[in-house]
Design goal:
Elements lengths: L2 H14 L4 E5 L7 H9 L7 H6 L6 H4 L5 E8 L7 H5 L6 E2 L8 H20 L4 E4 L7 H7 L4 E2 L5 E2 L7 E8 L18 H5 L5 E3 L2 E2 L5 H7 L6 H7 L2 E3 L3 H4 L26 H5 L3 H7 L9 H15 L4 H9 L5 H15 L8 H10 L7
Parallel strand pairs: 3-10
Antiparallel strand pairs: 1-2, 2-7, 4-7, 5-6, 8-9
């Protein structure tokens, strides 16, 4: 079999399936094992216990899928039109949702296309071993993508390509074919440190090293507990993820808009007013987030994140009333709601009106005759 010819065909097929780029690499990630272990030893994975549980398997694809010889790494752009980055962040009464989560959940879409790529290869070569992955297995996808020539790992730990920035998803097809490999990407960020200095919580502790316990994306998505008070003001109006490190990256000036309509902003999030989103009951949340990555955090965590954003919003009796109506749902949620109410109360302008005085008294827990 002419494996070079097959590799060339694979890249053509990948583009036909909606991937903007594909590359092939070997499975040797030994050079990354020490950094992975150091990251785990430092506890930077937070409550993501599966990171430590799988250990070095993340750097050993052949342990994940025995017989694997090569990884076909693919990129799919997701930047939606009318992304409204600055607009959302500049409107504290609106929720900011990470760009990748505005449309449908990418996991199934990218995985299905990878599966089709595997099947297309099978029609060409006959039966062989392959398995697609999209954030669904313990695997170091960014080092593999760099080895496959798709870009370099930026100081924010995300993959970067000078032609398209970082607004793209990655996926991997593990195969047992001895395909020729592509040269690894040799790019770097140079002296630029915009992502490090712009991180709201200073989560990027070294070049390419992120302390998840300080990262807003981790806190609002992966972490289901009580968000430490030191981070709540810094979260601002970000209720699901954070794009700040990508927003300031100069390479993202060259990002291409996605051609995939599933990644466009869903209508229900076209005007993400905090109070309106906070009013959703669980049934409404599940219906509105059907097919969205946001759905997996659950209604209670959705309310927790919104409560923090509402506490950071400008003073409003409407916000205070909405927060009060959610008290009593859970102890953890109450802690965030009470904090949010306190933040709102501290903004109450000096006024002698009966309404303002009543709010001060009730929310500060003072007797009504105080």
């Amino acid at each position: 079999m002419n494996y070079q010819e097959l590799a060339n065909k694979i890249k053509v097929w990948a583009k036909e399936l909606g991937f903007q780029k594909a590359g092939i690499c070997d499975i040797d990630l030994r050079d990354h094992e020490a950094n992975l272990q150091n990251w785990l030893d430092a506890g930077y994975h937070g409550d993501m216990d599966w990171m430590a549980r799988h250990g070095m398997m993340r750097a050993r694809p052949s342990e994940l899928v025995p017989g694997t010889m090569r990884v076909i790494s693919v990129r799919m752009d997701y930047l939606p039109p009318e992304a409204q980055f600055a607009a959302n962040l500049a409107q504290p009464n609106h929720a900011y949702i990470s760009r990748y989560a505005l449309g449908r959940d990418y996991h199934k879409l990218v995985r299905n296309q990878l599966k089709k790529l595997g099947e297309r290869i099978e029609r060409e070569v006959g039966h062989y071993g392959y398995r697609p992955f999209v954030d669904s297995a313990p695997i170091l996808e960014r080092p593999l993508a760099q080895k496959a020539g798709l870009g370099w790992t930026g100081k924010h730990s995300l993959l970067l390509d000078k032609d398209c920035g970082s607004w793209f998803f990655l996926g991997e097809l593990l195969v047992d074919l001895p395909l020729p490999i592509d040269p690894p990407h040799q790019g770097d960020c140079g002296k630029c440190s915009s992502c490090i200095t712009s991180c709201p919580t200073q989560a990027i502790v070294a070049d390419g090293v992120v302390n998840a316990k300080r990262c807003i994306s981790y806190l609002t998505i992966e972490f289901s507990g009580v968000i430490p008070e030191e981070f709540r003001k810094l979260i601002g109006n970000r209720i699901y993820g954070c794009d700040d490190c990508q927003l300031v990256c100069p390479w993202n000036r060259f990002a291409k808009l996605t051609h995939e309509e599933d990644f466009h902003r869903r209508t229900v999030l076209s005007s993400p007013d905090l109070v309106a989103l906070f009013a959703w009951d669980e049934k409404t949340f599940l219906e509105n987030m059907q097919g969205s990555a946001i759905r997996r955090i659950g209604h209670m965590q959705w309310l927790r994140n919104l409560a923090i954003a509402m506490g950071n919003a400008p003073y409003s009796t409407t916000i205070i009333d909405a927060l009060k109506q959610r008290l009593g749902m859970s102890t953890a949620l109450d802690e965030h709601i009470n904090w949010a109410i306190e933040q709102q109360v501290t903004q109450i302008p000096n006024s002698s009106t009966k309404l303002d005085r009543l709010i001060r008294i009730v929310q500060k827990g003072l007797p009504r005759d105080a």
